[in-house]
Description:
By secondary structure, this protein is of the alpha+beta class. It has a single domain, classed as Winged helix-like DNA-binding domain superfamily/Winged helix DNA-binding domain (Arc Repressor Mutant, subunit A), CATH 1.10.10.10. Helices cover 62% and strands 17% of the residues. It has helices at 2-17, 19-30, 37-51, 60-69, 97-104, 108-124; strands spanning 34-36, 73-81, 86-94. Helix 1 packs across helix 2 (19-30) and helix 1 packs across helix 5 (97-104). It is globular, with a radius of gyration of 15 Å. 25% of the residues are buried. The model has no long low-confidence stretch (mean pLDDT 91).
Amino acid sequence: MIIFMEIEKLIRNIIVEDELAGDVIRVLNLFNGVLWMKEIESEILTMYSLVGGQGDLDRLKDIIHKLSDDGIVSIEEMIRASFTVSEKDYLVKLIDRFATHKVLMEDNRFREYIKARKDLYNQLL
């Protein structure tokens, strides 16, 4: 229980102190805790277009490695394949999705992002 509470506190601090690191956590949580690094960048850009914000995406790889050092995510270099191409990428996973989700349910930015995505999808239907 103590470790769980420490992870929650760490996540709360990260989302307050570093917008881009917080946004990485937010988009990972929205996609069940797992995304390719290139997908994280794309989804953060989508988030910025829907709810505002701007981060230095040149820092993205460093931020993800820091989140790994902090025990928030794990990173695994793998081959990402599609029907037309295979390339090396990093699979990024939240280590404790339950604790992350609990913290983000109290996060206004995360809730705004979910609402904006839902509204966008409803417009497309």
